[in-house]
Design goal:
Number of helices of chain A: 1
Shape of chain A: rod-shaped
Helix content of chain B: 55-70%
Order of helices and strands of chain A: H
Strand content of chain A: under 5%
Oligomer: heterodimer
Distance between the termini of chain A: 59 Å
Largest interface: A-B, 34 and 50 residues
Strand order of the largest sheet of chain B: 1-2
Radius of gyration of chain A: 19 Å
Structural class of chain B: mainly alpha
Chain lengths: ~55, ~450
């Protein structure tokens, strides 16, 4: 019973993840590999920030 | 029933892979860790699932997938060299039958590790691979954790999904892997984009980490306790509020001890008094034997060379009670004791060259992750460090936990560690394509001069 619960939960999540990956363009190509922005910075700020220095 | 569910799951992911062939790589990672063909007992056990999915994953990459950004690096070369060396020692192995049995799974583990980085070309792929590793370990760990809570534990008695004590389902191995995976869980909870950070993700991650911590308790594996200690120390290095963390960890320990089963506490008590423990003293004897063996066979004896050993020692037996106590001395001979250490496993099986290759492969991983930690240590406006820093840090912690656990368990060729190595190589290759970061990277060794 506990095994089934664990299998259902984790396998369900893997399926959901796979489903979400299907529609992600950046799975096959890093979208911003040309422009060199830093998506991990997360802030929606403009690329140039002269105050940083 | 569970057969059909697992089979339907595999078929569903395989079908989705028709649109995105990379999903087949993820499917192989899942099959490699969970081994669903062992969980079921009907149709799924009859299929050569691992081979079928490997062919899908490799074929999909070869024929359908892009190769942009794929690199073959020095560490992949080391894996291939180790594979070739293992092949040579297997040909000349002292115990041919068991050597070929072991070769059957070791080569897959090594080949996939060399292949995996070629497919992990984007950040999202890397994240997806980490996620599948975490959830696959999670499938084993969550059920093990719940059973432990309800008192199903004990050394060698906690049944995980599979009714056999082999591979990743062996108590000490799953304990090591469960603790090693914790940093990856934390990274996903913080930097994930497939499941972005929100309360549900945090709650799941917290539950999963708790389940991971319960596995060494449930399996009563002493190695697991040591791994928890190592991880606790490693986390001190990166956590912001160290004193608070140390205080909370200490408090958690004090609160947890009364809840730990008596059998567990007794077994853990034997860590310090190793001379009174037969398991530990045989271990030391095997290690001594292996060292001597390596002097005679510097190029290794092939897989399972430990079968050549035998030990005879005196055992003291006390029988009776009170005034009728009698003590007898007897001789016991034990044969074919396993290495119980990855380092001696390599030394005995692959000799000094094999051990050297493996150590170089692992050592380079620790070093490369350390370099990335320096390179991406800068915080952004919100005070967060980059995902690269986080992943390099998590992969380094996972690897170090594994390397310490490997001191006491023969897990040198486990697919799990080679998946971690594959992820490290992929991360290093991926960020090497980011020229921008190099110039802005802080250099801690220059810090004093520049301030």
């Amino acid at each position: 019973m506990i095994d089934y619960l664990s299998i259902a939960l984790t396998h369900g999540l893997i399926l959901l993840a796979a489903w979400r990956l299907l529609s992600r363009e950046d799975l096959d190509r890093d979208a911003d590999s040309q422009a060199k922005p830093k998506p991990w910075l997360r802030a929606p700020s403009p690329p140039a920030d002269p105050s940083d220095g | 029933m569970v057969d059909l569910v697992l089979l339907a799951f595999v078929v569903a992911i395989a079908a989705m892979g028709l649109k995105r062939p990379f999903l087949w790589v993820l499917l192989y990672i899942y099959v490699d860790i969970v081994v669903p063909q062992k969980i079921g007992w009907g149709l799924i056990t009859a299929l050569p699932l691992s081979l079928m999915v490997f062919v899908l994953a490799f074929g999909g990459w070869l024929v359908l997938d892009g190769k942009q950004g794929s690199r073959f690096t020095l560490r992949q070369g080391l894996i291939v060299a180790l594979l070739a060396w293992c092949g040579m020692t297997t040909l000349g192995a002292q115990f041919q039958d068991s050597a070929w049995d072991k070769w059957d799974w070791v080569w897959k583990s090594l080949v996939f590790a060399a292949f995996l980085p070629l497919t992990l070309r984007t950040k999202l792929r890397l994240e997806a691979a980490v996620l599948v590793i975490v959830l696959s370990i999670g499938a084993i760990v969550i059920s093990g954790g719940i059973k432990t809570v309800f008192g199903g534990g004990g050394y060698g008695t906690l049944t995980l999904l599979v009714d056999e004590n082999a591979g990743i389902y062996e108590g000490s191995i799953i304990s090591t892997a469960a603790i090693a995976v914790i940093p990856l869980v934390l990274w996903l909870a913080r930097y994930g984009t497939i499941f972005s950070p929100q309360w549900k993700v945090t709650a799941f991650a917290a539950g999963l980490v708790f389940a991971c911590l319960l596995i060494p308790v449930g399996t009563s594996a002493r190695t697991g306790l040591i791994c928890i200690g190592v991880l606790g120390v490693l986390l001190m290095r990166t956590i912001r509020h160290r004193m608070l963390y140390a205080g909370l960890a200490g408090l958690a320990l004090v609160v947890a001890v009364p809840f730990l089963p008596q059998s567990y506490l007794e077994r853990m008590g034997t860590i310090s008094g190793y001379q009174g423990d037969q398991s530990a003293s045989t271990r030391l004897a095997v290690w001594r034997w292996t060292y001597d063996y390596s002097l005679d066979h510097p190029l290794g004896g092939g897989f399972d060379a430990y079968r050549a050993n035998s030990f005879t020692y005196q055992v003291r037996r006390v029988t009776g009670e009170g005034a009728n106590v009698s003590v007898e001395f007897g001789e016991v001979t034990e044969e074919a004791r396993a290495y119980h250490s990855s380092y001696f496993e390599l030394l005995g099986e692959q000799g000094w060259p094999g051990l050297g290759l493996w150590l170089l492969l692992q050592g380079m991983g620790v070093w490369q992750m350390e370099r990335l930690r320096w390179r991406y240590a800068r915080r952004d406006a919100g005070g967060t460090k980059g995902w690269q820093w986080g992943l390099a840090n998590a992969l380094q912690q996972a690897q170090l936990v594994y390397l310490v656990g490997a001191l006491f368990v023969g897990i040198a060729y486990q697919p799990f560690i080679f998946l971690l190595v594959g992820l490290q190589i992929a991360l290093t290759t991926l960020v090497a394509r980011e020229p921008e970061a190099e110039s802005t990277a802080p250099r801690p060794w220059l810090r004093q001069a520049s301030v």
